[in-house]
Write a structure and sequence with these properties.
The structure holds 2 protein chains of 2 kinds.
Chain A (H helix, E strand, L loop, with lengths): L4 E3 L2 E4 L5 E6 L6 E8 L3 E9 L2 E5 L6 E5 L5 E5 L8 E8 L9 E2 L3 E5 L1
Chain B lengths: L2 E5 L2 E5 L4 E8 L5 E7 L5 E7 L5 E3 L5 E5 L4 E6 L8 E8 L9 E2 L3 E6 L1
Parallel strand pairs in B: 2-11
Antiparallel strand pairs in B: 1-3, 3-8, 4-5, 4-9, 6-7, 7-8, 9-10, 9-11
The chains are: A mainly beta, B mainly beta.
Chain lengths: 114, 115
């Protein structure tokens, strides 16, 4: 158990809909990262938040957005969903004791868009 | 920009045999390198990491990796495979500046262990 929790575990929704994925980092970790894992793209970094502020951005679509709240949990919002958004979405967290900032991954949310 | 190439999407070994999973990286700054393992329907678990210093890094479950700057490689090895090692393995790199947090992953190698 990494200490990172993600809800829900599975999500099935239709094209055009909007969903919210939730992540709670390990106790004390200030950074949260979101990754997408799909068969064709592999594991892709989406976005990083540090103590409530966006720190780094990767291959995140404009239809996707994220935020980190004062209690440090984070949410990833996916809107206008397309079939190609079906994937496993991971959240990871890390502390701030200096690089390389080991990342601890949650169990993931499997999103299926039908 | 950083990138990772894992040679071989599938590796099959017999129980007790040597495990060798290959990883080559590209980075414009001194890299931090990682190996993660993913068991079916689970998240990624950190096996080991290279930061600076000793180039031979030991990790959990008997795995180790050697950082070779001249070859830009970070291959993962285990002397004797166990059935429980069957999983997918990912090599990843992160770098300096604002890229510290971003992990760039290879495409993964599925390890199969035969009895």
């Amino acid at each position: 158990d990494s200490g990172v929790t993600q809800t829900p575990k599975h999500l099935i929704t239709a094209t055009g809909q909007r969903v919210t994925l939730r992540c709670s980092p390990r106790s004390g970790d200030l950074s949260v990262y979101w990754y997408q894992q799909s068969l064709d793209q592999g594991l892709q970094f989406l976005i990083q938040y540090y103590n409530g502020e966006e720190r780094a951005k990767g291959n995140i679509l404009e239809r996707f957005s994220a935020q980190q709240f004062p209690d440090l949990h984070s949410e990833l919002n996916l809107s206008s969903l397309e079939l190609g958004d079906s994937a496993l979405y991971f959240c990871a967290s890390s502390g701030d004791r200096g690089p390389p900032y080991e990342q601890y991954f949650g169990p993931g949310t499997r999103l299926t868009v039908t | 920009a950083q990138s990772v190439t894992q040679l071989g999407s599938h590796v099959s070994v017999s129980e007790g045999a040597l495990v060798l999973l290959r990883c080559n990286y590209s980075s414009s700054v001194p890299p931090y390198l990682f190996w993660y393992v993913q068991y079916p329907n689970q998240g990624l678990q950190l096996l080991l990491k290279y930061t600076t210093g000793a180039t031979l890094v030991k990790g959990i479950n008997g795995f180790e990796a050697e950082f070779k700057k001249s070859e830009t490689s970070f291959h993962l090895t285990k002397p004797s495979a166990h059935m429980s090692d069957a999983a997918e393995y990912f090599c990843a790199v992160s770098g300096g500046g604002t890229s510290y947090g971003k992990l760039t992953f290879g495409q993964g190698t599925i390890l199969t262990v035969h009895p």
